[in-house]
Amino acid sequence: MTTTLKALQNWVDEVASQTLPDNIQWCDGSEVEYNFLIKQMNKSGDLEALNQSNYPNCYLHRSDPTDVARVEHLTFICTKEKEDAGPNNNWMAPMEAHNKIDQLFKGAMKGRTMYVIPYCMGPVDSPYARCGVEITDSAYVVVNMKLMTRMGAKALHRIEQEGNFVKGLHSTGDLDPEKRFIMHFPDELSIKSIGSGYGGNALLGKKCHALRIASWQARKEGWLAEHMLIVGIENPQGETHYVACAFPSACGKTNLAMLIPPKSQPGWKIWTLGDDIAWLHLDEEGQMRAINPEAGYFGVVPGTNEKTNKNAFDMIKSDTIYTNVGLTEQNDPWWEDKNIGEPIIDWQGDKFNSDLRSAAHPNSRFTVSAVNNPSYSELAEAPEGVPISAIVFGGRRKKLAPLVYEANNWKHGVLVGAGVASETTAAAIGEVGIVRRDPMAMKPFCGYNFADYWSHWLSFSEKSDKLPKIFHVNWFRQNEDGKFLWPGFGENLRVLRWIIDRCESRVSARSTSIGNIPNTKDIDTNDLDISKDVLEELLTVENKEWLQEVNSIGEYFETFGDRLPKELSNEFDKLKSALT
Ligand code: GTP
Ligand code: SPV
Ligand code: MN
C-alpha cells in the first residue's frame, strides 16, 4: 500500500530519509495485519501470551520501568508566541523544538520497521471526525491504535479525499528519559514524540491529537475537544439522556461510563458512548452534540473487579492487551483489588514481593476495542453524535467539594469547571495525592492558553439558548479515618438521576453560595448503607472553607494576567461576595 496523496507520500519519504528504517509498512487496519503483528511481538518478547483458555487473545506488554505514565514535564506546546501556550503549558519556540527533536530522530529507526498508520478520530462518515497519520517504529503502538481508533484503509481513503491530516511522528528511541519529548506544533497540525512507548505519550491519536491539537482546532472552528466520558442513561420508561463528564486522569471516567445500575434501581440501563474524550459541537438547532473520537479504551486496571466494574471486568477477559500488570501461577493477569487469584510475578517480570513493589503498576492499563464492552452503545458510530443534556465536572477531593452541585447557568458553570482541583494520580509521572488545579480536567491536555480556552467556553452562551446544564461531582470525599463517605461506582447512578431530574425541572434544589445542592430527600438512598448524617455531610457547603478555596482559585487566575476573560472574573467576584 502507498498513497495517491502527494503531501502524505512526501512526508513519509522525508521521515524515512531522516530516521533510516529497514522497512516501511503501510498499515491497512486488517485483522490479518493485527494477528501477524501480535504473533511477531509474541516471538520477539514484546508481548507475552496470557493463559489462552482463561484469557483468549489476551497479551501482556511490559514497558520499560521508567516509562509507565504520561510525562507532563517533557510535554511541550510549540506555538510561535509563548503567551499562546499559556502558563498552563510548557512552551518551546517551534524552531528550537524541531531542531532539538529532529536531532534525536536522526537514524532513530535503523534496524526497525517504520509503520505508517492512517487513522480517523470519530466515525469515518462523520462531519465532526478528523483524521491523522501516525508514523511509528513501535508495533505495540500499531496494535494499540488498531484497538483504539478507526485505522487503516478507510481512514486513508478519507484523508486522500480531504487532502489534510494531522501529522504524528513517533519513535520509542532508546527510552532514555533524558531524551524523551512530546512536542506539539498546533500551527502545523503536527506532533513529534520520542523516547516513550507508553499510552498517551505514544498513541498519538489520543491525548496529543484528539485533545491538544484538536482543542486548538476546535477554538478556531467553534467547537470543543474535551477530556470527557459520554454516557447514556436510560430510565425505566425507555427515555435516554446523554451526559458528558470531565474528570481528571484516573478519577473515574471509565467506571462511570460503563456503570451497572444497582439492584435497587430496577429498569435503569447505562449505555457507553466513550470513556475518555468527547468532541462537542452545536448543531443547527443549537443543541450540543457529542462524538467519541476513539473506538476503544485504554483503561486503568487496578481497582477493577466484579463489584466495582463488572462490565470492565468481563470485557477484559478476551481480546485485550494488558500493559504492566502482574501474573498468577496460571499465567492469568493479576492486579491490586482484582479479588481473585494471587500474584507470583510482578509488572517488571520479577518474582512478586510485596515489600519491593505492587504486583501491577498503579497506572497499569488495558487496551480493548469498545465493541467488547457489554454496555456499548451503537450510537458511538452515529455520524451526528448524541445530544448532551448535562456537562459534569469532577475531581478527586478528600474534603470540601460536595457529592454534587449544579451551576446557576452556563457562565457560572464555566467558572465551576475552571475552578476544578483534584489530587494527582499515577496516570502521570510525579507525586501522587497532591491537590492541584485541573480546570475542566484539561490541565495536561489543553493545547493553548487556558485564559483563551475559558473565553472560548464562555462564547457558547451567545451561540445557543439550549446549552446543557453544568454540574460538579465528587465521589471521593473521605472521613477522618480515610474511608470514602460515598459508596461510588454503580451507586453513582443515584447522583446521575438527580442531575437528569434537574435537567428536566422535575426536582427542586437548595440554593447555596456555590450553586444548587440536592435536598437530601431527593437523593435516593433506598438499599444504601449510608446514614442521614453522612449524606448531609456530603451535601454541606461550608462557606469558610470555600472562601479559602476561592482565594486559591483567585491566585491561580492571577497567573493568567490580563488575558483572563472579564466575564470569568465577574463570575468569580460574584462567587466571592456570595461567600462573604
Ligand atoms: P484515565 O483513563 O486516566 O483518564 O482515568 P479515568 O478517569 O477513566 O478513571 P477510572 O474510571 O479508570 O478510575 C480510576 C480509579 O478510580 C480506579 O482504580 C477506580 O477503581 C477508581 N474509581 C472509579 N470510580 C470510583 C468511585 O466512584 N469511587 C471510588 N472510591 N473509586 C472510584
Ligand atoms: C490519562 O492519563 O488521562 C489517560 C491515559 O487516559 S493516557 O493515554 O496515558 O493519557
Ligand atoms: Mn484520560
In short:
With 580 residues, this protein is an alpha/beta fold. The protein contains 16 helices and 31 strands. The protein folds into 3 domains: 6-45 and 71-222, Phosphoenolpyruvate Carboxykinase, domain 1 (3-Layer(aba) Sandwich); 226-295 and 378-579, Alpha-Beta Complex (Phosphoenolpyruvate Carboxykinase, domain 3), CATH 3.90.228.20; 297-372, Phosphoenolpyruvate Carboxykinase, domain 2.
Describe this structure in words.
The chain has 580 residues and is an alpha/beta fold. The protein has three domains: 6-45 and 71-222, Phosphoenolpyruvate Carboxykinase, domain 1; 226-295 and 378-579, Phosphoenolpyruvate Carboxykinase, domain 3; 297-372, Beta Complex (Phosphoenolpyruvate Carboxykinase, domain 2). It is 29% helix and 22% strand. Strands 1, 4, 5, 6, 7, 8, 9, 10 and 11 form a nine-stranded mixed beta sheet that branches. Helix 11 runs antiparallel to helix 12, helix 11 (410-418) crosses helix 16 and helix 15 (543-558) packs antiparallel against helix 16. It is globular. The chain starts with 5 loop residues before the first helix and ends with a helix. The model has no long low-confidence stretch (mean pLDDT 98).
Annotate the secondary structure layout.
Elements lengths: L5 H14 L3 E4 L4 H14 L3 E2 L9 E3 L13 E3 L4 H4 L4 E2 L2 H12 L7 E9 L8 E7 L2 H10 L1 E2 L1 H10 L3 E6 L9 E5 L4 E5 L4 H4 L2 H17 L2 E3 L1 E7 L5 E7 L6 H5 L11 E6 L3 E5 L5 E4 L4 E5 L9 H6 L5 E3 L2 E3 L4 E2 L8 E3 L19 E5 L16 E2 L2 E5 L9 E3 L3 H9 L2 E3 L11 E3 L12 H14 L5 E5 L19 H11 L6 E2 L4 E2 L14 H7 L4 H16 L7 H14 L1
Parallel strand pairs: 1-6, 3-19, 4-5, 4-10, 7-9, 9-11, 14-25, 25-29
Antiparallel strand pairs: 2-3, 6-7, 6-8, 10-11, 12-16, 13-14, 13-15, 16-17, 17-24, 18-23, 19-23, 20-21, 20-22, 26-29, 27-28, 30-31
Helix pairs in contact: 2-5, 11-12, 11-16, 15-16
The structure holds guanosine-5'-triphosphate, sulfopyruvate and manganese (II) ion.
